[in-house]
Every structure is written in structure tokens, then in C-alpha cells.
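[Q] Does anyone have a clean C-alpha cell version of this?
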Amino acid sequence: MKAITYSRFGNPEVLELREVSEPKVGPGEIQIRVHSTSVNPVDWKIVAGGLDPLMNVDLPAVPGWDVAGVVERVGLDTTEFAVGDQVIAYARKDWVQGGTYAELVTAPARTAAHKPAALDWAQAGALPLAGLTAYQTLTRLGTREGETVLVHAAAGGVGCLAVQIACSLGARVIGTASERNHDFLRELGAEPVTYGDGLAGRVREHAPDGVDVVVDYVGGVLEDTLAVLAEGGRHASIADGSVTERGGHYMWVRPDTADLQALAELADKGRLTVPIDQTFELEQAADAFRASMEGHIRGKIAIHVAD
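[A] Here you go.
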């Protein structure tokens, strides 16, 4: 099968399209014929070696954790799915090696859910990691109906999903973004504010008494978060570990079938969509990485593998 691989840590130039062996299907796993995957910043950070101190990396490796596709085979004692099922997965394993930038991938059944019918393959393949990140930050903070939520980097891959999820929970949402993305945020249900110097004051114009929940998907905004947080408010970040010293949660997304199925149900109810900024072919993975690294992405970058 064809797959994108890398044999050493480095920039996108280390990525190669190669023929590799099909992955074996272990007990409790499913083999997925990949239709689409996506780029998350963690993907190119892993390829660059940034997570080597945290996770074992078995080189040569195939990058990628997002996948949407069709079940090709099921492993021993895997009753959750059947051959032919359309699925999505945050196919993270306990080590980095056999990722989703390939024609076939295996994933533990505990990482997968049935694909939402309302999303096309590109949208479905871009949902798992970013969607779970947004969902788990908001639910861990106990976001409730009637509360006001501030989403930092609201137009990005995680932020644009967090806006929609918070709205589905009945919250009022304020989202930070550049002015060119303000109409985009309004369409998703958020009240936009421009990030940068003076952010706290601009948020206070929308919420004079402060906000109940803050979710940070960019980093470098802790002082602004604390400046607008109401008494008793809660905050979390996926990008700034120092939040734990200031009463916040530092979070790392976990594979979870129930959470992923909840996202799929929101999509099928018309309450969650996945904006796609750009789509690349599998052999263009290096270009997809470069686009992600440049930033200023509205929504997600998809990688098309097969129709």
C-alpha cells in the first residue's frame, strides 16, 4: 500500500510517499480503508521530533491520527464494528509508527465511532482530533446552558468546533480572531472580538461582569484570560502548561468512542459542521504541513486519500 513515511526527524522535506506493508490487525482493532485524513499541528511537531521526549517513536513512521474511511477487516474479539462500516477515528496508539497518512490503517476500536452521515469524507476525516479536543475541554470545565464562554483562536481548527459545541450546550460564545474572520465566527454563532493588545478590554465590552469559561487553543493569552474570568469561572488550555499554576486545566485530548459519537450526533442534527480551508492529495502531505505551519488557517486542512 502507499503511505507517507519519514525515517528521521525534520521539516516537511523528510516526508516521502512509499510502498509499505499493510498493517496487521490485532485483537480489539479494526483495519480502515482510508478515504480522508487531516493535518493537525501535532502531526508536524511529531515529525520534527518535538514530542520525542513524551512518546516512543518507531522509525520509519507514518504520521497522522485523524481518519475517516471504511472498515476493511476486524481483529479478534472486535464486536463494535463490522466490515463495510463507515467510521471515523482518532487513531492514536501508545506509540508513534503506523499513522493515518496511508491507504490502510489499523485503529483500536476504542478510538473509533460511526461516521456522521451529514459530513462528507473530507469533513469527517478532519473532525476527530480537533473535535474531541474542543468537546473535552468544554465538558471537563462543565460548560452549562446560560454561561458565557470565551474561545481563544476561535477561527482555527479546534476553535471553530468549540464555538459550535459551546453553542449546542446553550452557552453564549465570544470568540477571538482577526477581523477578516469575524463574519465567519458570526455564522458559527459567536460574537467576534479582535485578538492582540487590549483584548481584555474588548471582551469586557461584551461581558462587563466577566465570562464563566475560557478555553485557550493558541497559548500566550493567560493574563487576558485571568483579566476577563468572572469570580468562580473556569479555564483550560491545550497550549500553555502554566495555566495549572493559576487555577486552570492543561489538557491533552484522549481517544474516546462515546465522545466521538456525541460529535457525530451533533453533526447529524445539523448543529456541527467542519469548515475545510484547503484540501491536499496524499502525495502533497509536505505541502499540507507547510500550509499548517504558516498559520492563518480558517478551519481544517484535509488530505484526500481515496474516493
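[Q] Thanks! Anything notable?
[A] The chain has a mean pLDDT of 97.
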